[in-house]
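hiii, so i know i said id send this last week but things got crazy w the move. better late than never?? heres the sequnce for the chain we talked about at the cafe, plus the structure i predicted for it. fair warning i was half asleep when i ran it
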Amino acid sequence: MNFEINPYVGAGMIKFGMTGKQVQEILQIEPQKFSKTPLCDELTDAYPFCHVFYKGNGNCEAIEFFEPADVTIQGNTLIGKPYEKVSSLFKELDRTLEEDEVGFISYKYGISVYSSDLQRVEGVLAFEEGYYD
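okay and structure toks below
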């Protein structure tokens, strides 16, 4: 299943603001539920290729993808690609990109990219407006 990121809207058929039940109906998989961190009040839905995060009202606020997910933005594949290639693409698209030792955040595109060693993209988080506020 391809998940084309539509900034601040969603990824593929998953839209921010959907309930967990709506996401489950789209993915047609029963998720495992877990707490991402001890401070997290809301449970996260774990699917074989992504984690879906919810706000206090139970609506989706972010989706974290990892292999084997096929995640694209503007037709560009992200997961599994060389970090430098993906980073260069976003530096051209977003001059306000925030980079650190494990990836970057693009507030312009509502996306963050994770790479533990900055060699290969391992994870992509698509998030709704205000997620990091």
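btw The CA atoms of residues 49 and 68 lie 6 Å apart. thought thatd interest u
miss u guys!!
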